[in-house]
Design brief:
The protein is an alpha/beta fold. It has two domains: 12-133, Conserved hypothetical protein from pyrococcus furiosus pfu- 392566-001, ParB domain, CATH 3.90.1530; 135-194, Orthogonal Bundle (Helicase, Ruva Protein, domain 3). It has helices at residues 26-37, 41-50, 69-77, 96-105, 135-145, 157-166, 171-176, 178-189, and strands at 12-13, 23-24, 53-57, 63-65, 82-83, 85-90, 132-133. It has a three-stranded mixed β-sheet. It has a two-stranded antiparallel ribbon with strand order 1-5. The protein has a two-stranded parallel ribbon with strand order 2-7. Strand 3 (53-57) and strand 4 (63-65) form a beta hairpin. Helix 5 (135-145) crosses helix 6. It is globular, with a radius of gyration of 18 Å.
């Protein structure tokens, strides 16, 4: 079993990328789509050369995305056909059941639905187009951009924040007034009850 950490020289079709999660924040996707639209072809090429999508090679040598799902979805919706990927691990020799178990145990999979409930592996979409919206993931993404918490290497850290916010801010409130929900999120992020979350930067007594 190989574990390379080198980019593939041949671009991969965006429509063939396999997700390892069930949801995205569609507001986050919209932000990335807007960024892509503002670039010319050369700028987009340079950007994608610097933001390769990390994947794990699975059965049939399919590319399973382990980060940058929002970018991949945005590229798909903007009609960008190919993207460069960097291989985190080559697990293509494993059968499907063993492969999914390894993904899960290594923190390379997030099989939770838009309500934060864990689902079976089979519930994960086969393509980026079928990822559904989780507004709390968008709330968590904006919270990080506004300094509510620091970027962290913990796998799916923003989903952990999304779940924290999901239990404290009403979903209808997020949909009706995102700005107001953000103010509540910023306040919640500084509380001691959030100190277990990755990137927490609330006040301390030190």
């Amino acid at each position: 079993m190989r574990s390379p950490r080198e980019p593939l020289l041949t671009p991969v079709a965006v429509k063939e990328l396999r997700p390892t999660q069930m949801t995205v924040g569609m507001r986050e996707v919209g932000i990335k789509r807007q960024m892509i639209r503002q670039q010319n072809a050369s700028e987009t090429g340079t950007f994608l050369g610097r933001h390769m999508v990390p994947v794990v090679l699975g059965p049939k040598r399919r590319n399973y995305v382990v980060d940058h799902h929002h970018l991949a979805r945005a590229l798909l919706e903007e009609g960008v056909e190919d993207v460069l990927v960097t291989v985190t691990s080559d697990l293509s020799d494993l059968d499907k059941e063993a492969f999914l178990t390894v993904l899960d145990n290594r923190g390379w999979m997030h099989p939770f639905d838009a309500n934060g409930k864990r689902q079976t592996y089979d519930a994960i979409p086969k393509n980026m187009a079928d990822l559904v919206d989780d507004p709390y993931r968008s709330l968590a993404g904006e919270l990080r951009r506004q300094g509510g918490f620091a970027k962290d290497t913990t796998p799916f850290s923003e989903f952990l924040w999304a779940d924290f916010l999901r239990r404290r801010i009403d979903r209808a409130s997020v949909a009706k007034n995102f700005g107001k929900a953000m103010k509540a999120a910023l306040s919640l992020a500084r509380r001691k009850e959030a100190d277990y979350l990755p990137g927490w930067c609330g006040p301390t007594t030190d």
